[in-house]
Amino acid sequence: MMVIDTDSEQQRLxxxxxxxxxxxxxxxxxxxxxxxxxxxxxxxMALINFIDDDRQWFKAALGxxxxxxxxxxxxxxxxLLQRGLLVIPDTLQDSRFAGHPLVTAAPFLRFYAGVPLxxxxxxxxxxxxxxxLQPGVLDDTQAELLKALARQVMRLLELWQANRRQAEMLxxxxxxxxxxxxLAATDPLTGLAxxxxxxxxxxxxxxLVQSCQQPACLLMIDIDYFKQxxxxxxxxxxxxxxxxxxxxxxxxxxxxDTIGRWGGEEFLVLLPNTATxxxxxxxxxxxxxxxxxxxxxQEHRLIMTVSIGLIELQPERSLSATLKLLDxxxxxxxxxxxxxxxxxx
Length: 345
Ligand SMILES: Nc1nc2c(ncn2[C@@H]2O[C@H](COP(=O)(O)OP(=O)(O)OP(=O)(O)O)[C@@H](O)[C@H]2O)c(=O)[nH]1
What we know:
With 345 residues, this protein is an alpha+beta fold. The protein has ten helices and 13 strands.
């Protein structure tokens, strides 16, 4: 009967799992080592096998048409127990193995030699073994070469693990890069596109308007009397009002529209494939939604109004001229009494 120390067995299994080798497909590099082991030891069979919780699983299985066997009465588990080379010249002459299912039934094993696969921190996670259907022996050179090949299996595993870690790090790096790109393009308070990102989108879309002659509109939206709002209720409620605006704007505009925070309490919205009348309808819907949806704080329910300038992009008008005209239009909307939408003209 094999006695297993549960603590070190758990550590051994953890060491094995760290390689993520179990249940991976066969690979030429491992098959080659098994072939070399069989050649050196002059046997028809060789295994690279890992001793899992309740099974032995073969990464390479030369001459044996199996991928795994139950761990119960595994011959290889004996190699781990004695922590070194195990040679069984004739299984039928060895009381420990004479009744083994692989000895008493197909493939009727007679000869076995195995060495442990040892991790750099001393855990034995499997074996490299050779087997024959006739009794046999292993000379010193063969034994040394079998041990050398077992070390090569471990080098391969270490390399495999290093590659996997590198791939994981590259994946993490890609993810971080994506997150940073999103952060760099986002206004931290409202989560809308920041001025730089909006400008980029606007430039790209303007090029499209010039080449495809598709209609597109731009809205410049400024919250009315926001300084007063801040002064009266505090900067914190002012911030909440900006977030409130952004939340409503996301609901009112289409997913294909781009909303950007242009500065303080000023926002720009790009509406692709939208003519002036449709853009005016959306701008008015935004003003109505704001009028119906107060900013809620513990003590107040505050209604915000906005002034909006609207302009249709024209291929023959430069972007800077468009933005200047839009800014002037917004200024007029403020001058005329605020809480309104004015069309540039
Ligand atoms: N709470 C808060 N306030 C901001 C933020 N950015 C800008 N502001 C404030 O927004 C106010 C804008 O004031 P003004 O440019 O005078 O405009 P206004 O009071 O809205 O007046 P009109 O635009 O003419 O209706 C200033 O008091 C800024 O401090 C912000 O991120 N949070």
